[in-house]
């Protein structure tokens, strides 16, 4: 039964009222309201409501038909809103606040500025001038680009006499192409730009060309309010895996702007011998509700399982594990890379997993003997860390680590129970997760809180002193913290922020660092401020551990630049294989850039090692094969993450289209 009644509305009116139609100001804050509590039939009687306060509730969206024709002021602070487009039903809205809704971003600000023509104040700021620019100048430029894209690439594809099927095909191709290729403004607004481009493209086809497109939105899937956890057996998990047909002989052309692609001259090419890597499996195992039609779920993180002395998962052919944990959407999967079998699948219906990490705990089993077991930590949008005893198929506990989403997690290599969690709340927390007893009782405790100036995206412990220094790539730069536990201070600011060259050659500390990893004990690889390149730099030569003062600025000592795509797409992260001196990074075209740096690492270890004068090109680029899904080619693939096992036998590629690709080095 809804929490909202006629009596409640009359009581919460300001001032209290005796008739719903007379209410002009209504305070419904702090009532634990959910979206289902907003009954459109009841709200339709509030014909003269002008001010509505819904702050401090649990709303995740607005119903599409609240019918408040005179609403001018709306407060939605401190909710769980995920989308703002339903606010277009309030065309007279002048003042809107929705601060502390963790899932809303700058892109949503721009959406409401476009949708609400009368909006003057957004989150307390006058947006009149900016909103006019968004509605007019921005729209005019995007319309021009959309029209030009049609004229150049699609106009000649439509015959003078066309069938409904031809219209449908052209529409589908054009909408996909235009959203991918029409770009405008900063990358931080890419979601808004794609949203507007699609809208403009649909209007263009419908009105300029007279094509009736039938673009009604697809119905949304309903989700249970209660969290549902499940662990599937290998047979059940295997049944959930969609089959994707691959034609390896046909390759997608590399369209990278960098020009390096596959057309490098011999003088430019990295002279290291190319590894022979072949596609092995393409798996669709993270589908929402196990739907075979789900090619939208984003896959974010994968980590190979560490070997145990018992060898339960040990591949007799290679010296490292061939089992990998992957996460994305509502599920975490364990995959055997050789066979492509989904060994286990763990799901939480209300979660979106962003990160996974392994540790090995020495646990006491029932007969008081000690035995090593691998434990998997998984975290994401809900700010909760799930602890999974994989061998027992059991999620034995959870840590409510943050009130906002967790971007990434990692375990200490020296302290098996120490887990770092990096959150959208701009904090990195260090936890001792404890060791569960034979009944899975455990006690977790927070040891440190590291304050960041922006959202931390990637974590890297310094290999030579993992108990003392932590690096983090953040939305606003690259930072280092002293994490030594012998200090009394539990909450700590950063100790250093690193400067890097920007596009103009000037040094900057303000840039998004969405890729960060150590190649060896000293050499760091990061992707950040300069399009078209990945930086290779030295920890020891950049950071003086004896330096005095906190929050100091230091210049990164650059050893080399790696040539990479010039895309402005964010969050396409990189990884390293220290044992083989390899760096991997995917791009916006579905390709994997591979760099064998073994010819350079010896020189970089020298204190007098000079910076490489020229950008180092990739040793090779793995291009995305043609994948057939229900007879249609799967295109427009972003590579979110690429990870190899320690011996570089397997390469696991995570995509934006719910496909896990596994490649094997011959």
TrEMBL record:
Family annotation (Pfam families): LRR_LRWD1, WD_LRWD1
One GO CC annotation: chromosome, telomeric region
Residues annotated as domain Leucine-rich repeat and WD repeat-containing protein 1 WD: 277-665
Gene3D superfamilies: Ribonuclease Inhibitor (3.80.10.10), YVTN repeat-like/Quinoprotein amine dehydrogenase (2.130.10.10)
Keywords from the UniProt entry: Centromere, Chromatin regulator, Chromosome, Cytoplasm, Cytoskeleton, DNA replication, Kinetochore, Leucine-rich repeat, Nucleus, Repeat, Telomere, WD repeat
Domain Leucine-rich repeat and WD repeat-containing protein 1 LRR: 7-200
Protein's UniProt keywords contain Nucleus: yes
UniProt keyword Plastid present: no
UniProt main location, coarse: nucleus
UniProt repeat feature WD, residue ranges: 399-433
One of the GO biological process terms: DNA replication
Biased composition (Acidic residues): 215-231
Name by which UniProt lists this protein: Leucine-rich repeat and WD repeat-containing protein 1
Organism of origin: Psophia crepitans
Annotated gene: Lrwd1
């Amino acid at each position: 039964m809804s929490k909202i009644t006629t009596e409640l509305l009359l009581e919460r009116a300001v001032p209290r009222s005796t008739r719903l139609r007379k209410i002009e100001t209504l305070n419904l804050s702090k009532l634990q309201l959910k979206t289902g509590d907003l009954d459109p039939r009841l709200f339709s009687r509030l014909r003269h409501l002008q001010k509505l306060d819904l702050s401090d509730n649990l709303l995740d969206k607005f119903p599409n038909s609240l019918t408040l024709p005179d609403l001018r002021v709306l407060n939605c602070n401190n909710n769980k809103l995920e989308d703002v487009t339903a606010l277009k039903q309030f065309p007279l809205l002048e003042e809107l606040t929705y601060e502390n809704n963790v899932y809303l971003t700058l892109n949503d600000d721009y959406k409401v500025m476009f949708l609400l023509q009368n909006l003057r104040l957004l989150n307390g700021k006058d947006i009149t001038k900016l909103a006019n620019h968004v509605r007019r100048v921005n729209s005019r430029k995007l319309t021009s680009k959309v029209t030009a894209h049609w004229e150049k690439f699609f106009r000649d594809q439509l015959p003078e006499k066309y069938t409904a099927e031809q219209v449908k095909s052209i529409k589908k191709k054009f909408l996909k192409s235009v959203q991918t290729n029409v770009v405008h403004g900063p990358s931080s607004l890419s979601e808004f730009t794609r949203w507007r481009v699609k809208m403009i493209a649909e209007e263009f086809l419908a009105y300029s060309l007279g094509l009736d497109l039938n673009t009604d939105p697809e119905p949304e899937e309903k989700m249970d309010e209660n969290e549902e956890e499940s662990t599937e057996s290998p047979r059940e998990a295997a049944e959930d895996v969609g089959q994707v047909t691959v034609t390896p002989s046909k390759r997608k052309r590399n369209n990278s702007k960098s020009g390096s692609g596959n057309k490098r001259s011999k003088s430019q090419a990295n002279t290291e011998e190319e590894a022979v890597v072949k596609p092995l499996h393409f798996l669709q195992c993270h589908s929402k509700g196990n739907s075979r039609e789900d090619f939208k779920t984003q896959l974010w993180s994968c980590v190979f399982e560490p070997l145990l002395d018992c060898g339960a998962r040990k591949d007799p052919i290679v010296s490292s594990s061939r089992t990998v944990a992957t996460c994305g959407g509502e599920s975490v999967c364990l995959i055997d890379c050789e066979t492509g079998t989904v060994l286990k699948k763990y799901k939480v219906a209300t979660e979106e997993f962003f990160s996974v990490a392994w540790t090995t705990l020495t646990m006491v089993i029932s007969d008081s003997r000690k035995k090593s077991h691998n434990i998997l930590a998984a975290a994401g949008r809900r700010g909760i860390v799930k602890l999974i005893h994989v061998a027992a198929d059991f999620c034995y506990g959870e840590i409510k680590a943050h009130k906002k989403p967790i971007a990434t997690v990692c375990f200490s290599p020296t302290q098996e129970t120490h887990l770092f969690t990096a959150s959208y709340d701009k904090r990195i927390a260090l936890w001792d997760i404890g060791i569960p007893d034979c009944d899975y009782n455990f006690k977790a405790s927070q040891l440190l809180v590291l304050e960041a100036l922006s959202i931390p995206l990637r974590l890297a412990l310094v290999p030579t002193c993992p108990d003392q220094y932590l690096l983090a790539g953040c939305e606003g730069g690259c930072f280092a913290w002293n994490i030594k536990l012998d200090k009394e201070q539990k909450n700590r600011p950063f100790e250093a922020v690193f400067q890097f060259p920007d596009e103009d050659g000037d040094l900057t500390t303000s840039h998004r660092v969405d890729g960060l990893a150590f190649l060896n004990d000293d050499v760091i690889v990061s992707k950040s401020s300069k399009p078209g390149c990945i930086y290779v730099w030295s920890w020891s030569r950049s950071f003086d551990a004896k330096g005095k003062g906190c929050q100091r600025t230091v210049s990164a000592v650059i050893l080399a630049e790696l040539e990479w795509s010039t895309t402005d797409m964010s969050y396409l992260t990189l990884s390293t294989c220290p044992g083989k001196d390899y760096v991997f990074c995917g791009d916006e075209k579905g390709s994997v850039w591979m760099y064998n740096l073994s010819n350079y690492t010896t020189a970089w270890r020298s204190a007098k090692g000079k910076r490489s004068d020229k950008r180092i090109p990739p040793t090779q680029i793995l291009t995305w094969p043609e994948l057939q899904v229900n007879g249609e080619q799967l295109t427009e693939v972003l590579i979110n993450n690429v990870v190899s096992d320690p011996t570089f036998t397997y390469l696991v590629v995570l995509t934006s289209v719910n496909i896990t690709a596994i490649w094997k080095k011959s």
